[in-house]
Amino acid sequence: MTGARTADPPYLASLRAGYDRAFEATVVATPPEGVVLSQSLFYPVGGGQEADHGTLVTPDGIRVAVVDVRRMSGAVVHRLEKGGLVRFRIGMTVRGEIDWARRYTHMRLHTAQHLLSALAFDRYGLRTSEAAMSGHGGYLDLEGMLDGEEPIRRLEEEANSRYFTQPVQVESAMVSRAEFEAMPGRSSAKSLPQGISSVRLVLIEGIDRCPCGGTHVLSTGEVGRVRVFRDPKGKVASTRLSFELLEEREGPSSPP
Ligand SMILES: [Zn+2]
Fold it and tell me: How many whole angstroms from 207 Cα to the centroid of ligand 1?
């Protein structure tokens, strides 16, 4: 890809920018895998969050579906529907449109996952080793055993009654690696990749602080009610909690 790069996405610096759903950019490379743009609002799969889908529109108004998005050495590559790549040339200005329903569901799911992980740590002392989301649900693997159904019911009840149906603010902040390492909480510095000097944190007021590059809602009230249940596919000596969104939400009709 001869060193083509995509600028850092605005949703990293500001959670609010995660609500933007259309943008213009210049085509900087067209490798066989797809189109690389100078900037992009499309989220590339990673961190347990699935890729955005959507559309790229050429200057002639031809609409080409984006079916997958990946980060490849500094470039965000938009994989297109079959036969779509021939529509794009380096230097062309294109419009990108995010599939908002899919993106907003990911924002709600990812925020739900952070909150459930925070509650599991706060109430039961169990850290999350892995988490992933797809469709309208997800799972988190807790590093330890949670016996019986009662603690899971309590977790679900507290999440719904205190957080997912009532607005608690969600924010992001950039801190240095050293600052992060000095912070207490469920996320340990061991989980950070080697060599990164600054850390993007997602903060849920009064309950959580977690390094994450994903997209999230601005208020936990946007998540709506969730169901939490044990998934027997969990690993040995760990507990897998699955969760699913119980409400359909469209989110704001335009960026807040
Ligand atoms: Zn996250």
Answer: 14
Unique residue bearing structure tokens 């599991």: 120
Q: In the block, which residue shows the tokens 């925070």? A: 118
Candidates 3.30.110.40, 2.70.70.10, 2.40.30.130, 1.10.510.10; CATH matching 10-98: 2.40.30.130
List the shell of residues around ion ligand 1, using CB closer than 5 Å: 110, 212, 214
Q: What are the residue ranges of CATH 2.40.30.130 in the chain?
A: 10-98
**CA 217–ligand 1 middle distance (angstroms):** 10
CATH hierarchy code of domain 103-245: 3.30.980.10
Stretch(es) of the chain classified as CATH 3.30.980.10: 103-245
From the CA of 52, how far away is ligand 1's center (Å)? 15
Q: What percent of the chain lies above the pLDDT cut of 90?
A: 85
Q: What's the pTM?
A: 0.95
Instruction: Check residue 208 and give its pLDDT.
Output: 94
Q: How far does residue 65's CA lie from ligand 1's centre (Å)?
A: 26
CA-nearest of 161, 153, 169, 144 to 243 is 153
- Cα 151 from Cα 143, distance rounded (Å): 15
Q: Is the pLDDT of residue 192 over 90?
A: no
pLDDT digits (tens, 9 = 90+) for 110-135: 999 999 999 999 999 999 999 999 99
Angle at 52 between CA 47 and CA 140, to 5 degrees: 35
pLDDT digits (tens, 9 = 90+) for 228-239: 999 988 788 899
